[in-house]
Amino acid sequence: MATVLPFHSEIVRFLERHHYQRVTPRAALIDMDGTLYDSMKNHTASWYRLISEAGIPCTRDEFYLYEGRTGASTINALVNRAWGRDATDEEKTEMYHKKTVYFNELPPVEPIPGAFEMLNLLKEMGLRRVLVTGSGQNSLLSRIDTDFPGIFDPEMRVTARDVKHGKPHPEPFIRAMQLARVSPSQSIVVENAPLGVEAGNKAGAFTVGVVTGPIPVEEMERAGAAVVFPSMEAFAEALPTLIFSLLSTSIDPL
Description:
This protein is of the alpha/beta class. The chain contains eleven helices and six strands. The chain has a six-stranded parallel sheet.
C-alpha cells in the first residue's frame, strides 16, 4: 500500500482549486506584523485609541481583522462606515501619522517565537524570501535586518508604499512574485490574518495560515489558507516536511 504523505489532502485540494499539476516552491512571501513580530496588540491598541478619539464607534478586537490593509485603506473604510463618505487625503495622512505616534509610545515589540527558526529554514532550503507587509511604519521595518540578519535582501521587500491596492487585493503578493521572479505555483505565502490569507490565495500561492493571535483557525480556512498551524513554532517544526510533501505531490492534468 502506498504511503500517504503528510499534508497530502490539503495539497491536493489546493492543486485542484487553482488547477495546478504541482507546486515547486522557489520563493516564500512573508508577512511582517503578527507573523514575524508580536506587534498586533500594539497596532490594535493604537488604532483603537485613534479611531475612538475621532468619535467613530469601534472595538479593539475588530482591528485584528483589518490586519494587512494599508493604513489609508483602514482609515477610509472606517470613515465611510461612520460618516458615509471617503476620507480626504489630509485626513488619511494626519490620522495615520497620529496612529504611528501612538504605536511608538507603546513598549517595543518582540519577534514571534519560532519566526527566526522558520526564516532560517527557508534560507537553508534555498527559497528566496520576500517581505510583504501592508505597513509603512519605519519603527518595525528598520528592525528587520537587526532581528533577522541576512534573511531579506533590500530589494526583496514590498510595503504599503509599493502598491496601489493593499491586502486582501492580491497586488502585494503579485508584486513580490515579480521581485522574486517566480510564478504563483512556485510561491508560498506565510500569513497570520484572514485578509493576508485571502490576498495570497487570490494571487495563486500556496498560502499557509499561522495562528499568532485571537483569530480562530476557521477564519483562516474560510479566507483560503491551504493549511493552518496553531503557532509559528509548530509551523517551523513542520516546514521541512511540508516542503517535501509539496515537492512530492502532484495530480494529473485535466
